[in-house]
């Protein structure tokens, strides 16, 4: 059974940092592309960052230069490091992986950027 579990969200002031984690069970993360999405209230879910099995990364324009994505294969975990956070980064953040032709999502973790 495949499970993705996000953690690390919370309340942070503008300009602050958070690191989100997405830990998988039932799949080997290093063989998959893993995406981080976010969804703010009243808005569509949007792709924020991606890391491929080969380690290539890309980011939404709105987070380039502020967010990084990395993986720890030994821990079967992908991280989203978020720096210089802005109020507009407030959203529920989800990780996603496609494995064996099936789309898997975590339950999401809330990130709130507010003073």
Structural account:
By secondary structure, the protein is mainly beta. Helix content is 0%, strand content 53%. The chain is built from no helices and eleven strands.
Q: What separation lies between the terminal Cα atoms?
A: 40 Å
Give the low-pLDDT segments: none
- Number of helix segments? 0
Question: Helices and strands: which structural class?
Answer: mainly beta
Strand content: over 45%
Query: In one word, what is the shape?
Result: globular
- The run of helices and strands is EEEEEEEEEEE
Q: What Rg do the Cα atoms give? A: 13 Å
Helix/strand layout:
Layout: E1 3-7, E2 10-12, E3 18-25, E4 34-39, E5 46-51, E6 57-59, E7 67-72, E8 77-82, E9 91-99, E10 102-105, E11 109-113
Parallel strand pairs: 2-11
Antiparallel strand pairs: 1-3, 3-8, 4-5, 4-9, 5-6, 7-8, 9-10, 9-11
């Amino acid at each position: 059974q495949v499970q993705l579990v996000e953690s690390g969200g919370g309340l942070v002031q503008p300009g602050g940092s958070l690191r989100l984690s997405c830990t998988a069970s039932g799949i080997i993360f290093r063989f998959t592309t893993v995406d981080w999405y976010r969804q703010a209230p009243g808005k569509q879910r949007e792709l924020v960052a991606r890391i491929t099995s080969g380690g290539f990364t890309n980011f939404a324009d709105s987070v380039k230069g502020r967010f990084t994505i990395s993986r720890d294969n030994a821990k079967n975990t992908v991280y989203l490091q978020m720096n210089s956070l802005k109020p507009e980064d407030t959203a529920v953040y989800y990780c996603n992986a496609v494995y064996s032709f099936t789309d898997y999502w975590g339950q999401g973790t809330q990130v709130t950027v507010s003073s």
